[in-house]
Every structure is written in structure tokens, then in C-alpha cells.
Input
Amino acid sequence: MITADQLTVTYPFTKEPAMAGFTSRIRSGENVLVIGPSGSGKSTLTLAVQGILPRSVEADVAGELQVDGEIPSHRSIMEAAAKTGVLFQDPDTQFCMAVIRDELAFTMENRAIAQEKMDSRMQSALKAVGMQAHIDTAIHALSGGMKQKAAMASLWCQDPDIWIIDEPMSQLDPAARRSLAECLQVIKQDAEKTLIMIEHQLDEVVELADRLIVMDDRGSVFADGAPRDVLTEHTEAMVSMGIRLPSVTKTAYALLNKHPELFRRMPVTIKQWQEGTRHLPAEIINRVLPVPAGSGRIDDKNIVLEGEKLSFRYKGTKVIDELSCRFYKGEFHAIVGRNGSGKSTLFQLLTGWLKQEQGDVSLFGEKLTRKSMKRIASAIGIVFQQPEHQFIHVTVEKELRHSMEIEGWKEEAIKERVEELLDLFALQHKKMSHPFQLSQGQKRRLSTAVMLTSSQSILLLDEPMFGLDQRNTDALLMILRKLQEEGKTIVMITHDLNVVYSYASRVIAIDEGVVYYEGDTASFFHHPDQIHRAGGVIPACMEMRQEKERLIYV
Output
């Protein structure tokens, strides 16, 4: 049993606790989903329960926390690993070896697992996450999503009593998310295992949970109970806190504003949605569902960035294979594809960070090789998949000031813009914090805010919604839409097909380093085989649309 009473954690050099007054009891064998706004202390709770904090991560811990009657940080590292395993929000932080095979073997060696049992457990773990073919792949060569799969395989080999999964779905394509949900279902069915899931993306995990704990922005427990009961009773409050709801719950809430008699209990699954709305006319339902964004007039004169027959190999393995793509002024482009399909590599080729072995990249009609990195940076802004890669200052404020100071902004204008961005991205209370002290969602918001301090006309974003709650996701998408309307070109890598469906005007779909679809959004969603090839599933907003009306929009 995990018992917490007024658990409060404060990190060094910070005035406010990362979490304050958390009180709860989680019984052995329970399957619990923990949600809350970005920065509410969910990952801090993970570190405390495992004992990493304050054993290895310095922090002031007040209140009480026990796991099976012991203070977790008092356990040795070996004892703690056997009791509680964690899939961290950033998988790079937990790898010790260079190759997947060695990483999994190292995990089992530390658990003193007999050598004759290692191979079968390793194969079982890799099969569970769909990574059998990558057993001898270098970890640093993996995409973000594939690293998450490798980290999950490592946890599978560890086989702890308590599994804590911190945002496991955040960088996975939809098909991989469903596959991971099946893995978690196996763990759930083991009565001796305790499963704690921390997640913003709720569609795949809410049905796995027997219990839902909602944390407020202070890190206290706001609500606790059966998932459907909590969502029914506290929907409005959760929306106001910026917490992401399951897709069907979010749509049902919008529908209830005009039809309060519709649902006695909020739906969390498509089946529950269909049962609650089958008597309603399609036109009423479809008023609250999005339709694909339209595309502007596509003209070769409006091409601002182009890749032509690009090829790239990594240690002999072809990652990009004669790939061609075009990006147009004032369009919102979504790049979709399975984990490891080459999306992030394409971004690095388009910005000159990597050099293709053949093909050309053109920026405003001129070959990229003829432009200096300074000229490229003045035209293209980028948000990396790992936001830490672009932080260079010791405070959030200095990070935001940097580009404006280089561009020669006046001090008064810099201060005004910094304050505006701090408010817009809910970072005002972190103004003097070091960027590395932020939560993953806060780091993502800062990296996006930094991009908006410059005047680039092309903005590339690699999984920008990773770690964001609903409020900050909505704010980011509204900003991007406004920038698009102002004539800027938006290029976003994402696995969230609900966002693609609602915001993107054009889709570029990649599979094994090749573009197999390039065109408008509506046409992409017209063909389910195209969606599935990208590792996607039919977006919930399409599934909720009644069959007779669905055909109009897809």
C-alpha cells in the first residue's frame, strides 16, 4: 500500500513547493490514473514514491509517505528497484547502455535474474512493445517514440511490484498507443501488481483505470473516485483548471451546454457516447464536432521551403529515401507517420542541421547550401522534440530575452513582450527559475515561447503538445492559427490526429522515409488506409459523427 499524508516537496532554490499537501492511499493491486494541470507535481509524486527523491534528487520533503510500511527513500537502490519501477516522462534520463540488448540485459543483471531466463524475458518484453527488430539498435539513433518503447521494455524486464508510467503515450503514434494500452492491460490483470499511470492523453488509458485521482495546480488531491463518476461530477472544474478530458467527454460537455438533460453520467468511451446520443438528430451532434480546416490556393509561387529527392543514411541504414515535399506560405502543414518513420530527421535536413547524401533543400527558391546558418535561422524557427536542447540561459526570463536582444529590440519593447509571453504560456511564476527546473510541460511551453520571440516566417514544431495540458494546448494552437492567418508558414510534427483534423490545412504523411501522401487535410482523412499507414486510428471526432453525416466531411 502507498500512503501519503500532507506530502509536500520543495526543490532547492525555489520558493514554492512543487507539490503541497498531497494526501491519498493506493492499495496494492489497484490501477490508478493520476491527472492534473501541467506543473501540478505529478512527476514529483513519481520520484517520491520510488524513493529517488530525496535519495538521489535533492529536495525538502515534508509530511508522510510510506510504501508497504517503509519510507521509500530509506530503501537501497536495489530494494527500491524491485519494489517500484518507473517509466520516466523523458526516457533519455533512464538509459545506461548504448544498445537496446545491453540495456535490457543490464536491467536484469541488476535484478539478479538468472542468465538462462534473460533471453526469454528480453524477447517477451520486446514483443510486448513491438521492438523485436531493433534489439541491436543504438538507443541514441531511435526516435523519441521508439525510445519510450525501449524504456517500457526495460521496465517489463525489471518486473517490479509497483509500475509507475509517467506520460507513456506522449510521443507514440496512435497505433503504438493502443499497443501499449494492451501491454498495460496485461499488467492490470495481475492482481499482485499496482499500476499508476500519469497521463494527459486520456483516450487510451481511462478505461484501464479503476480509480481516477485529480491533482490541482498546487499538487493536492482535488477529486478521487471511479473515473466516470469523477468526470461526471467535476467536468466543469476540470475544464477550468485546464485539464484534458477524454475526447468523448470533452464533446459531451460541449453538447450539454445546450442539452443539459442529455447525459446522466458523462461518457468516456465511444460506445457510451453512441448510447447517449442515438436519439439525437445528426445536425445537433455535428454542430459541436470539428470539420477539416480548409486549404488556401496552392500555387508554386507560394513555395517557401522545399525538399527534393532527399536521401539520408544513419550508419548504413536509410532513414530518408528520395523524399520530396513542399511547404507553402500561410499554410498549416502537419507531418504525420509512425514512430521512426523519419519525421524528425526530415526537420533536421530542412534546417541544415543534417546534410543529406543526395537531393536539395531550397529556402525561398535558393539552395540551402548557399545560405549561412545565420540566414537560415533568421527565416526558420524550430521547437525541438527535446526542449532542453535549445536552452542556453540560467533563467526563464533571460531565455525569452535572448533573441530580441540579438535582433536589437529596445529595452521597453523587450520587457513588454517578455511579460506578454510569460502570461500567455502561464510561466509568470517561473520567471526567475532555471529552465532545467521546469516540468516537462513547462519546458515545452518555454521552448515554444522562445520561438515566438523572433520574426521568422517559417515555424517548425516537433511534437509541440507533448506534456501540455488542455489549457496550454488550446493556447498554443490558437497562437499558431493566428500566426498562420498573418501569413506565416506552420509545419508541425504530431501524432494527434484530432489536432490534424481540426487545425492543419495540409498533410504530409511519411512511411519508412518516403512521402506517400501530400495534399489537403480532408482528402487525407477520406481514406482510412492512409490513416492506418501513418500509424494512426480514426480520430475520435470522426467516430463520434453519425454515419450518415460522417461521409459529408470525410
